[in-house]
Design a protein that fits this description.
The protein is 47% helix and 11% strand. By secondary structure, the protein is mainly alpha-helical. The protein has one domain. The chain has a three-stranded parallel sheet with strand order 1-2-3, covered by helices on one side. Helix 1 crosses helix 3.
């Protein structure tokens, strides 16, 4: 995705996230399922497999992603683009919790900063 569109996505996602509370309370029932995922660590194949097996996020197919979206794998940026796009489309049905790898120092140490610099030259 061209850097111009990534920047627009990031700005809009930031605006939406700033409006959301720090703590999200979710409830579900037997008739309404929710899929909880974690530790993608830049592995796009894992995210695509989750969506293949469980369906794409929607009002009827809710998701919670428990952090560690980035670092280690080579497709952290693509994962963020996909998750942020779905967050903008379904802000009440896709929830993103920050993990320890969504931290500046961890990004430097485990590769996300390098990935972004390589894909989107400064």
């Amino acid at each position: 995705l061209h850097a111009r569109y990534v920047l627009q996505l990031l700005c809009e996602t930031r605006r939406v996230l700033k409006e959301m509370p720090n703590i999200t309370h979710l409830s579900t029932s037997y008739s309404r399922e929710i899929t909880v995922c974690g530790d993608l660590h830049g592995n796009l194949d894992d995210l695509l497999l989750i969506f293949y097996k469980n369906g794409l996020p929607s009002e009827q197919n809710r998701y919670v992603f428990n952090g560690d979206f980035v670092d280690r794998g080579k497709n952290s940026m693509e994962i963020l683009i996909i998750l942020f796009a779905f967050l903008l489309i379904y802000p009440n049905d896709l929830h993103l919790n920050r993990g320890n790898h969504e931290d500046y120092i961890m990004n430097l140490r485990y590769g996300f900063t390098k990935e972004v610099s390589k894909k989107y030259k400064v």
